[in-house]
Amino acid sequence: MSWAFLRDLLSGVNKYSTGIGRIWVAVVFMFRLLVYVAAAENIWKHEHDEFQCNIKQPGCENVCFDHFFPVSHIRLWALQLIMVSTPSLLVVFHVAYRENREKQHNQKLYRNPGNIDGGLLCTYLISLILKTGLEIVFLVLFYKLYNGFKIPHLVKCDIKPCPNTVDCYISKPTEKMIFLYFLVATSCLCIVLNLSELSYLIFKYSIKCYLKRYMKKQQ
Asked: Is the pTM of this model over 0.85?
């Protein structure tokens, strides 16, 4: 899978972000995307082939694997990366709309098309809310699908066509557990960063509006 489009998207968003937003971009790019591409993808690469049960009943291993891993961790992680980065497109599209509008009118309509104010501020806040919501949704989804943030060494399966309760072993459970904890930690960090940036922007522009009203009253 090529991640160039996601890298370009994050690079574009970085131009219009606040300081906290740039930290978020760095966390997503350095501690999530690169870790995924460089290490995590290889660990889960042959997870189905390395899933072994102590019985050779045809179909038993496949059914048990599907029961305990309805969606691959690594594919769900990839989907999460894409989904939480997509709301940033709203900001990029809004800035592009501003720049295109200036070209059509052949005059300066905005002080700086990339400044976070007015309609762009609303778009930026919506993107932050969406990113935070998606992060939380995926954390809950991980927890529900796998009965917690853990990878057991051994699972017991009694689903047909298995003739009885069989023991199934997961390959490299400790290594996978470390990356799963890393995933959860970085997701929580991104949630904190998004909420911090959201609070910062709301506070900043609330103060700005208050000062404007105060100055008008003074005049």
From this structure: no
